[in-house]
Amino acid sequence: MMVAMARIVILVPTYNERDNISLLLDEVFKNLSNRNHDSHIVVIDDSSPDGTGDLVKKITETNDHVHLLSRAGKLGLGSAYIDGLRWSLSNLSPDIFIQMDADLSHPPSYLPNLAEGVLEGYDVIIGSRYVKGGGSTSWSWYRRIISHGANLLVRLMLGIKEEDATSGFRALSKRAVKFLLKFTLSSRGYSYQIESLFLYSKLGLPIKEVPIIFHGRKKGRAKLSISEILSFAFLLIRLRTIKFK
Ligand SMILES: Nc1nc2c(ncn2[C@@H]2O[C@H](COP(=O)(O)OP(=O)(O)O)[C@@H](O)[C@H]2O)c(=O)[nH]1
Ligand SMILES: [Mg+2]
What domains, with CATH codes, occur in the chain? Predict the structure, then answer.
């Protein structure tokens, strides 16, 4: 697919990212400017107590390429993406959707590369730590174990071939998003990444991994909790046992 002027939407879910969000927005636009596309950022904030939403609202007043979806409370990472994708599809009608974290763990310098994958005809492009050339820095040993363990379980139990099934840095085609939104996912939190990838691969959509170097967050706190890990375990069991129609 060759698109003269592709529209890209970057979706960024936030919960207490006051110290990261302004820099992230600047870096995203910096890395996508001077290119043949029109880029927008949609921040999905869950009424962050630290005022992330207010900060973003101020930015939207002077930059009409930044959009804010404010939700009533902490409703989970996965449901934030679903709401952001649905809103973007009907209000901005993008050709390319990119999911990324607000904490600068996903370097914005990879954005053009991820977007390129969609223009090449892939429906899902994963920014992957576990393919040749990828990696992670400043991540604690237990986060590394959780990440590797989760990926191993996903491969063994769900037959997903991708090396980094838990990565949240992904580009999606409009086709992938339209498919995704037809389903009601059981995951509201982090395991959304697994459930959506399971769906894309069952649907037979072309998926590609591109290497990224992931950086552990420097500011603010990680939100991965025990309850997210339990939801992940239940999701694996559920996806193992459901019949895919
Ligand atoms: N809107 C919203 N964003 C969330 C929620 N949980 C996490 N996030 C955001 O999702 C991204 C990933 O979270 P993070 O804490 O960095 O996860 P980790 O790096 O995997 O430990 C960050 O941008 C968070 O602010 C949530 O419940 N709602
Ligand atoms: Mg993080």
Answer: 6-241 (3.90.550.10)
